[in-house]
Amino acid sequence: KVSSKFDPKVMAPIMLDHFAFMSSLGTIQDLLWVGPLGFMEINVSFSGGGVVGGVSSGGWFGWFGNGKSGESVSVPIYVPGIFFVLPLIWFVVFPFLKGVFRFVSSTSSSLCRLLVPIQVPSISVPLLDSSESSDAISSSPSPPKQQPSPSIVPCYDPAQYADLGTMPAMTQKDVFGVCERASQAQNEWKHSSFHTRRQLLRILQKFILANQETICRVASRDSGKPLVDAAFGEVMVTCEKINWVLSEGEKWLKPEKRSSGTMMFYKKAWVEFVPVGVVGCIVPWNYPFHNVFNPLVAHVFAGNAVVIKVSEHASWSAKYYSRVIQEALKAVGAPENLVQIVTGYGDCGNALVTCPLVSKVVFVGSCPVGRKVMAAAVETLTPVVLELGGKDPIIVCDDADLTQAVPTAMRGTFQSCGQNCMGAERIIVHSSVRGAFTDQVVSAVKALRQGSPLAANARGAVVDCGAMCMPGEADRIQGLIDDAVSKGAKLLAGGDKAAAPPGGQFYPPTVITDVKAGMRILDEEVFGPVMVILPFDTDDEAIRIANACAFGLGGNVFSRNQNRALSLARRLECGMASINDFATTYMSQSLPFGGVKESGFERFGGVEGLRGCCHVKAYAQDIVPWLMDTRIPPPLQYPVAPNAFAFVSSLMRMFYGTDLVTRVRGLVGLAIASIPVSSTAASVDKTK
Questions:
Q1: Comparing C-alpha atoms, which of 493, 323, 353 is closest to residue 413?
Q2: By CB neighbour count within 10 A (0-12 exposed, 13-18 middle, 19+ buried), where does 95 fall?
Q3: Does residue 415 contact residue 229 with C-beta atoms inside 8 Å?
Q4: What is the per-residue pLDDT for 427?
Q5: Which of 175, 286, 421, 641 has the lowest CB atom count within 10 Å?
Q6: Does residue 46 contact residue 26 with C-beta atoms inside 8 Å?
Q7: CA pair distance 274, 269, nearest whole angstrom
Q8: Contact, 260 vs 630, CB < 8 A?
């Protein structure tokens, strides 16, 4: 219902739906919008006793008719449209137009980059031998006979025991020399522009996309993972990281305005992000390519130099990746020592942590070694970021879509043979769907193919699961399985190392259920191709099972009810959570990566990780120094006046009083305290 009475002279009448609401005056029955230069006519029904009568406001607000107690009177009220238009424009139209502008700007910028691509130099990195250039390579039935020594790190393919030569085991002197050269390079690089840093990342991205197969082959050779898993975990996430930093990195490292505070209202306040200097990164063996390029991308873009200590179990690939890095640095004119890779054992890592030239340490690895890193960093008070692995749960609710949950749980458990810090180690399934879930999983696991990924690729075949990268891991996992089975757990697939393919460090894909408290496999990180299925009946029980763990890296929940899934995810004690997916927070590179409890602390990745590459430096400056600046008031100048405390107390009341009266009293007190007082009136008796 809309009133038909309106001034025909007003502009752009827009009809709104009839609405009504109760107020202390009456009921607004009709609303007519007649444009910003006209009026809104509001018909108000007055009823009951004591209605205002004979009042005429005139002008802006029209008039009120006469009314008598107990009668109903309908009167129009005319309100200027501008009173309603301004809030509408400010709170609705402007934000909408701002969003449209951002969308158009972002879309047009992306289209321009696609249609008019930026000129990016190409780099060429020659392959040194067949182990880098070919899938086929001579293998051995057993690991190379060359044993580790203080001076060399033996390298071999864990999936077929092919000898890959050695890498140097660097000493403390070697590492300190590397860090000194890195520090000199960083002193130059910190003055580089964001344009130059972006160009370096574009060069790397262009090379990565053009050489995916070689990068994945080298990673597979050193870690034993299938090529498809290398594409997922090595190349794809690295490209996503580079893309995000290219798109948003400068935005998050620019100076940022901050509020100046109540008393400092006449100043401007801001922070700047200053590169920390040389960053030492100690990375594990499970993703040889990504674990090198992930810290490189963030720290170099932030203006730091990076020294990366790779694992002794995946050092061979560093030769190729180091050549790629050097060619990219050369192409952009960056210092050649800006990014360096060191190889060796624990003493090499200790040297990196304790080097006085290293300003920050990032460690990714196990809890025992993480504690040693922290202890070593104490000597130099070097800040440390620790990512210490996890034992991530997947909760599958009774209303979950099993066609989605089963394949995702399979990928989360068996990708890279389960050697993932965010690997799905506990699949917590509602009892009502446990049978169907288990049947589908067991059927899929029994169909998995295991063997040497590169040997299979050379003959045109494919494998689903590769090898365990680290020697002795298969035996350790077998110990966990044997312990669980001896205490009542039930094997549904795999579980026998002897049944794995020969000629490599293999452990067969395994499914185990009926796991109870007291079994080691429920508490210790498996880091292998083992799916543990645990039942639950209520959501509270699922959360109790998921949180009954020393680790807290990631978590995942499957349910068709989005609200239920989100509610469960919020109750998980972890640093990251995915809804109806697995570990997808890592593909959203704007998000930080890290956990709680024994999964470590601090973050790398995302805005927090990028800013963590810097010191945050705070600034405050007078906005109009010729008009207002800070001068110490006379009562507070040394030696302070007798009324100095009264001055400060009044000042605080004036600025921080919770009501007007307190603030006025503070102002009056401040005026009184500003009156000069003779110092002799409050002189101290020196004898006392």
A1: 493
A2: exposed
A3: yes
A4: 98
A5: 641
A6: yes
A7: 16
A8: no
For residues 391 and 426, the answer to whether their CB atoms sit within 8 Å is yes
DSSP character string of 188-231: HHTT--HHHHHHHHHHHHHHHHHTHHHHHHHHHHHH---HHHHI
DSSP per residue over 98-151, as a string? HHHHHHHHHHHHHHHHHHS------------SHHHH-S-----SS--SPPP-SS
Coil, strand or helix: which one is 670?
helix
- Answer yes or no: pTM beyond 0.90: no
Confidence category of residue 93, pLDDT binned at 50, 70, 90: confident
Can you name the residues that pair with 625 across neighbouring β-strands?
A: none
State which amino acid sits at residue 435: G
Cβ(348)–Cβ(318) below 8 Å = no
Name the residue with higher pLDDT: 678 or 518.
Answer: 518
> What are the helix and strand counts (H, E) for the chain?
22, 23
Active-site annotation holder among 312, 387, 425, 525: 387
Q: What is the pLDDT of residue 67?
A: 41
Residues 218-244: pLDDT tens digits? 999 999 999 999 999 999 999 999 999
Handedness of CA 447, 448, 451, 452 (dihedral sign): positive
Q: What length does the chain have?
A: 688
Q: How confident is the model at residue 679 (pLDDT cuts 50, 70, 90)?
A: very low
The strand pair at 73-80 and 39-46 is best described as: antiparallel
How many Cα atoms are found within 13 Å in the side-chain-facing hemisphere of 551? 27
Quote the mean pLDDT of the chain. Answer: 87
559-590 as b/e: b if 16+ CB within 10 A: beeeeebeebbebbbbbbbbebbbbbbbeebe
> Is 387 noted as a catalytic residue in this protein?
yes
Could you count the other beta carbons within 10 Å of the beta carbon of residue 106?
11
* Contact residues for 272 (Cβ-Cβ < 8 A; gap 6+): 255, 616, 617, 619
Amino acid sitting at position 453 = P
SS3 274: strand
The predicted-structure confidence for 17-55, as pLDDT tens digits, reads as follows 333 333 333 333 444 444 444 555 555 555 444 333 333
The residue with greater pLDDT, 97 or 549, is 549
Contact (CB, 8 A) for 409 and 424? yes
CB contact at 8 A, 413 and 229:
no
Determine which helix (DSSP H) or strand (DSSP E) holds 687, and give its type and residue range: none
Strand 392-396 and strand 424-430: pairing?
A: parallel
Count CA within 13 A, CB hemisphere, residue 63.
Answer: 8
What is the residue whose two structure tokens read 């696991």? 445
Select which of 348, 417, 421, 549 is catalytic. Answer: 421
Could you give the CA distance from residue 283 to residue 363 in angstroms, rounded to a whole number? Answer: 6
Long-range CB pairs of 29-34, under 8 A, 24+ apart, other chains included: 29/1, 29/74, 30/1, 30/2, 30/3, 31/2, 31/3, 32/2, 32/3, 32/5, 32/6, 33/81, 33/84, 34/6, 34/7, 34/10, 34/81
Comparing CA positions, the residue from 204, 655, 174, 220 lying closest to residue 453 is 220
